[in-house]
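Hey, can you fold this one?
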Amino acid sequence: MSRSWIRVDSLDDPRLAPYRNLPERTLRGESIFITEGWLVTERLLKSTYETESVLLAEDCAAEYADQVPDSIPLYVGPRELLYQVVGYQFHQGVLAVGRRRILPSVRDVLPPPDRPGPLMVVVCPQITKPENIGLVFRSAAAFDVDAVILGERCAEPFSRRILRVSMGAVLHLPMAKTNNLREELAILKREWNVALVASVLDPTAVSLPDFSPPERVGLLLGHETEGLREGWADLCDYSVTIPMSSLVDSLNLGVAAGIFLYEFRRNGLKRRSA
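Sure. Predicted structure:
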């Protein structure tokens, strides 16, 4: 039996309020976020985050309605109405409202310090572009990173763009956001024995192909244009760079993160098989 849904036809329907003016609602302290498209919405439904409701364009209802649990309100309306509600045209015809939680501390997202074995953490002191944060999370999920730690000046991880670019990885990867990143990094080094690696553009730094990362490693990724300024690199045990052709002076931050994490994971697998 197909599950039932609630028909919505009016822009003024109060049940659609959470989908409207999300930036303003967030600024007022409403702890909600929006997923867009079925893939990210499905990952929300399978995550530990609460799903408040799902909104489908009527031409998508037959395909997706039965995959939404009966306990979650399901609204269906004309595609044009969805465009009006969110304020722009999107193609997937699927939206959902999720509820945020207070992000945990670094201690809460990592395994116990005395647990043996490897540990890989990504640290972002100040990445401000949503696309780059999304790509970092997507690469971190692809290469089995244990946690992502965001500094206080990073972009909001539950923005619609970050959720979309990360393909929902934000909803499943352990994540902490801290107001005192320097102190948290000191705890990582002292209690978890994590060696910190600065990703830099510096010809004098260790070339990534020549670098053998320690078993417990934290990769620091710098600001999109200014790198690891304000002494972040000075806190690190190693500085490592990606060798590049002279035709290019830098890589997109998200691309660079993927390269670093692939190499770190490859080295770790090689070390365990030796």
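Residues 82 and 88 are 9 Å apart (CA to CA). Let me know if you want another pass with a different chain boundary.
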